[in-house]
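Most newcomers find our protein records easier to grasp once they have seen one. The structure tokens are whole numbers drawn from a learned vocabulary of backbone shapes. The record below serves as our worked example for the rest of this section.
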Amino acid sequence: MNNQVKLASGYKIWIGLTILGIVINIGLLTMFGKDWKTVNQQQKQLQELTVRINTQQELENQQQALNSQFLILDNFFVKGESGVAAVAQKLEQAADNLDLLLSLTFEDFPEKTDINGTYQQGLGINATVEGSYQAVSSWVQQIEKLPYFIRFTEIEISPLRLSSGIKAEFSGTIFLKNEQ
């Protein structure tokens, strides 16, 4: 019986310690549970902010790329008489570098020209180039590389009568920036 009393009192102590442990755990969970929830909420907010920051950086990078593309496209269309003069100068410079004889004439007034259903201001241009076939071919390749929208719609090529080489006549349009 004495053993049973000792066992019962040991059992009571064990139950008491277990209950005390549970109470302490509940107390700690209550105290630190709020802090734990706060930490979890702040971690979620931090993750959301990180995603927003990454998205914002991506958007800024895209904006820079679009701005540079816009500037290229904005300069693609010639602006006014000074722009046409600059294009003429580039055409003449390319011809001079290749020892070609170049004659340029421009229409007096720009007209609206259809580009895939969109009308764009364009100034008619006629260019006559005389020289070797290779030089004329190189001139055309240089014109294709210019940062302007120039479209030649008619091309006539014939041999030169008094010397070797060819005469190439180009008719087309230099597209202008539409006035807003």
